[in-house]
Amino acid sequence: MVDVRSAASAPKQEIRLEDYEAPAFTIESINLIFRLHDDYAEVEARSLFRMKKGAGSELRLDGGPYMDLLALEIDGSPVPDDQFVKSAEVLQLRSVPEKFELGVVTRLRPRENTRLEGLYFSGGNFCTQCEAEGFRHITYFPDRPDVLTRYHVRIEADTKSCPVLLSNGNPGQKGDLGDGRHFAEWNDPHPKPSYLFALVAGNLACQNDSYTTASGRQVDLNIYVSEQDLDKCDYAMQSLKRSMAWDEEVFGLEYDLDVYNIVAVSDFNMGAMENKGLNIFNTKYVLASPETATDADFDHVEGVIGHEYFHNWTGNRVTCRDWFQLSLKEGLTVFRDQEFSSDMTSRAVKRLDDVRVLRMLQFPEDAGPLAHPVRPEKYIEINNFYTTTVYNKGAEVIRMMHSIIGPEAFRKGMDLYFERHDGQAATCEDFAAAMEDASGADLKQFRLWYSQAGTPKVTARRSHEGRDLIITLEQSCAPSPGQGVKLPYHMPIRLGLVGPNGGEVTADLEGDGKWEDGSCIVNLRETHQSFRFKNVPEGTVPSILRGFSAPVVLDHDLSDDELAFLAVQDSDPFVRWESTQDLYSRYLVKQVSEDGEGHPPELLLQVFTGHLADKATDPALVAELLTLPGEIALGQKMESLAPERIHTARETLAKAFADASSENIIDLYQSLKAAQGYSHEQGAKANRRLRNVLLNYIALMPDGEETTQRRYAEADNMTDCMAALSLISHSNFDCRDKVLQEFYDKWRQNDLVIDKWFAVQAQSKRSDTVSKVRELTQHEAFTFKNPNRLRSLISTFSMLNQVRFHEKNGEGYRFLAEMIVRVDELNPQTAARLVAPLGRWGRVDEPRKGFMKDALMSVLKVSNLSDDVRELVEKSLA
Ligand code: TRP
Ligand code: ZN
């Protein structure tokens, strides 16, 4: 055997979509035996390989540098040393037969694995994370999504410390091995790629339930958590059953195994993982009780449970050919979980939440140095491409197809997609083709959404000819890395006409589009395209981009009065909200650029008080209508970021609203007091949302401290508690330090609640925040090993606290750079996810620009930097 260790330190090569080659071997089945011990694990893998016609006799297997190869056999005989070459990442076998059984035995050290990929330890239990390329750290294997095979797994472990032994598929035999050890076997009848493999072994408590599918299959449902969390699984279980029913009803898709297992672990790089029949979840997206979780947390549990469940069809039954196609499963599955949550909660409010996330996270990514298409063309480290572009913009791309071809054709397209590709590894192109064939629509130009990066800008201008209203739309898209010139997109723009008395106007359209439920969906395909609406009453106001029908930045020519009109009158909740936000933003942006002071115009106050008095609208939506645009959203509307001025202008307007409407605000606040204690019904959630928005204004009034403190003390649920605590954390109230300390003492045993405690301090707008955050990294409860804890302090600070992260002395940037380096030593994937905020230097002036680049450079100087971090830091400097 030739050991080429030096290769370990060579930086990874770029992988390109255009170089894709189908695998040379198929694998009929794999038999895995895991022998788990306290301080090591031995893995025996026996796979039946078959050479494809015309393929060479060289077999290339992926591997990793953290495992030992103990044995390598072909058909039961050791492979001679001169017949294979092993480097840190590849194992090459020469002249293998056409059909053979490959035996590989490896030894792993799960306790030392802080990278949290492959086999690792969390909370005293063994667990795995194989997406995207973790399986290669368990055994040598073609670790790519287009190699599918049947898995048989046997786990052997200590009976006492590992009573629970789980893997994918249906349970098989189990029994005692003597010597205090036992075993369990699992068979997964569905061929799958290695990234969907999973194993869990440990001491876990279980909540059990069952579900009967539409065709009568009884499915055993289990949620495994640590003993003390068993009382927080109800909502996840209910959400799972609702997901199963929803997918049957909406897409005609049923579950296909006898068991569905979910395990919650506290050390996890992402939200959750859709491993076939054995989902592994971050505890954050399983555990929820009213005392410990906010309403938003409950919604996230439901959304992520749904997301992973929906992957069973969109991801597992039909998987990805290669990782460039990641959005095939992720964009589609996010779209599906968004639709599920819309049906379970409020469609209007869910859409606002999704658009807000898209703008706050994806738009900046698309406008910065890390911009990439929904289907990227090259990468160095695939883990860096689990991005908001692939997930959230990917979901918008699916949503646009849904709008263009309509819901019925979309459902037909889904059916056709499964008919054609069930059991296969497919591409984004396959999906688009199914939608095209099912609908008859031509989506050729539409496919540019997959290949072009950047957020398009759409300008809408009006003109009148007699009684005809002509809306002219113009589109453009700025250059992005590697893409200088963009071709025009095909985008569905949903618009409506609101008549002078507030009613919907339906006018004949000359141009490419059709009316549907009071709105007109026009197809914008040209750079410059006009749509003529015939015979429109005078005083009609166009309502453009209803439901945010395309992920674009819209520039329109509506006056302040017209915005105020739409804010109240439009039947489309998104445009009501957007018009309100536009109105507030216009004023605030002007205040910032002119460093203005003084009173806001009467029109703004009128709109605000109008929303305050609105009894006909869902209180959750009213809450959004009363919320000022966030500092990050305001920053995006400016050429160059002025963080302090944005912060001050926004605070000043909030104070002006609080002063002008104090009585109405307090009255409404009082009237929303829950009649009979806590409830999780939609209505009660909506009331809490509105009441807590009002509390923001009340905190600015003369009795603000007292009211906020009372709210904190009287809260009987985490939603209200956090609403008050977050205000206290921002404030100079006398009670501040005492309240924070009390909260810590009360919850020190609950990791997820302590994460909130870190986050609320990281979000504080107080001027001492950078140094406080730095201090908190020394706190007894802080650890660099747990991704949730890192994110709650470091990502919250750097991604959500614009004014303090962009502190003029550069302290925020230097802090983040230090953290990236510290985390990279333990967990490169999570370290890389911290980099993006430092890449936004194009948006700021000196001296900030220089400080940001210096911070990036300081990371690059570190020796032994991971490929994950290096790729993103280098791109961020380009
Ligand atoms: N497929 C998972 C999801 O979106 C994502 C995921 C979980 C993941 N763990 C990961 C991606 C680790 C990369 C690395 O549902
Ligand atoms: Zn997913």
TrEMBL record:
Matching Gene3D superfamilies: 2.60.40.1840, 3.30.2010.30, Neutral Protease Domain 2, Peptidase M1, alanyl aminopeptidase, C-terminal domain, tricorn interacting facor f3 domain
Catalytic activity: Release of an N-terminal amino acid, Xaa-|-Yaa- from a peptide, amide or arylamide. Xaa is preferably Ala, but may be most amino acids including Pro (slow action). When a terminal hydrophobic residue is followed by a prolyl residue, the two may be released as an intact Xaa-Pro dipeptide
Keywords: Aminopeptidase, Hydrolase, Metal-binding, Metalloprotease, Protease, Zinc
Protein name: Aminopeptidase N
Organism lineage: Bacteria, Pseudomonadati, Pseudomonadota, Alphaproteobacteria, Kordiimonadales
Cofactor: Zn(2+)
SUPFAM superfamilies: Leukotriene A4 hydrolase N-terminal domain, Metalloproteases ('zincins'), catalytic domain
UniProt key word Metal-binding: yes
Domain Peptidase M1 membrane alanine aminopeptidase: residue ranges: 235-446
Keyword Zinc: yes
Gene Ontology terms for molecular function: alanyl aminopeptidase activity
Domain Peptidase M1 alanyl aminopeptidase C-terminal stretches: 560-878
Origin superkingdom: Bacteria
EC number(s) per entry: 3.4.11.2
Residue stretches spanning the membrane: none
Class of this enzyme: hydrolase
Family: Belongs to the peptidase M1 family.
Domain Peptidase M1 alanyl aminopeptidase Ig-like fold as annotated: residue spans: 454-556
Biological source species: Kordiimonas lipolytica
CDD domains: M1_APN
Domain called Aminopeptidase N-like N-terminal: residue spans: 113-196
Name of one Pfam family that matches: Peptidase_M1
